[in-house]
Amino acid sequence: MFLELSLEKGAFDPTGITTCTVANVVCTLCFGKRYEYNDEAFLSMIRINADFLKATSVVNPADFIPWFRYLPIPAMKAAQGFYEVLNNFIAQRVEEHYTTYDKNHLRDITDALISISNDKRNDGRAPPFSNDKIISTVNDIFGADGKIGLRSPRFDDRKDLHYTEAFISEILRHTSFIPFTIPHRAMKETILNGYLIPQDTCIFVNMYQVNHDETLWENADLFRPERFLNENGKLDKSLIEKVLVFGMGIRKCLGEDMARNEIFIILTTILQQLKLEKCLSIIHSAGYPLPKLL
Ligand code: HEM
């Protein structure tokens, strides 16, 4: 039975036990509850989640030609069906939480989301979280888990973790920790954008300026990974290419791919394996300025 439930049959989870364990961790986080491995509702939720991920992994022609979305493409119809079942499972759990909710004793993520939605803002604006938003947020947490789970992250995961990739690009852009390229020499007299560059001139590319150019980046000084995501939460690759940290032209960094892979693995491993806490007193005593909260 567990074999049948495996998200990645054979590869890292031949028995399906890892899948069930991961799903239980997510259920505990979201609903404060562990399920028995033979619980029918739990097993069917795992099956649906796996089917949903499989159905959404196929290429969707509507991503390339938008009006294809009106055509009855079977894989997309199936994905929508799985999504609705999963959403209903989560909606039921959220509904149960409303009946037992105690604002002085938050049990899990669902309770925390309900507490935010109950916060009445003084300025009379609508609360930030509607019921639908709570359900879709919990659903996102289930979906996010399906990408890596408890196994070690690998290079291949980069294509699925859009926000992580956006976050890394925003670090590279915002810090521009290598502000200039190494010096280059004009091999011959050149005219660039109407400027004369005599032969043998020493040239640096000001990458910091490009990465903080307000005509390219709205509110360039803000740290905002979302700027690299489109309305579907997918990475906008054309924007990533505009970030200049590895130089440009034929002498650009040879190690860009390797560096991006390494940053991804180190960052995701830290986030997965370690618990991070603010340590303000040490930051103070070391004399570093406190980070500006945005
Ligand atoms: C975040 C990490 C890294 C950053 C930001 C970075 C950035 C740069 C920059 C700005 C240049 C100069 C480009 C120019 O002047 O046009 C450069 C050159 C170079 N980088 Fe990197 N680099 C990184 C990691 C690496 C790694 C991991 C390797 C090798 C495994 C590497 C190998 C090279 C080499 C060989 C060059 C010289 C290329 C040439 O002159 O033709 N870099 N890098």
TrEMBL record:
It comes from the Eukaryota. GO terms for biological process: hormone biosynthetic process; progesterone metabolic process. GO terms for molecular function: heme binding; iron ion binding; steroid 17-alpha-monooxygenase activity. Its cofactor is heme. Gene3D superfamilies: Cytochrome P450. Keywords: Heme, Iron, Metal-binding, Monooxygenase, Oxidoreductase. Signal peptide: none annotated. It holds the Pfam family p450. InterPro entries: Cyt_P450 (IPR001128), Cyt_P450_CS (IPR017972), Cyt_P450_E_grp-I (IPR002401), Cyt_P450_sf (IPR036396). Heme binds at residue 253. SUPFAM superfamilies: Cytochrome P450 (SSF48264). Belongs to the cytochrome P450 family. This is Cytochrome P450 1A4. It comes from Chelonia mydas.
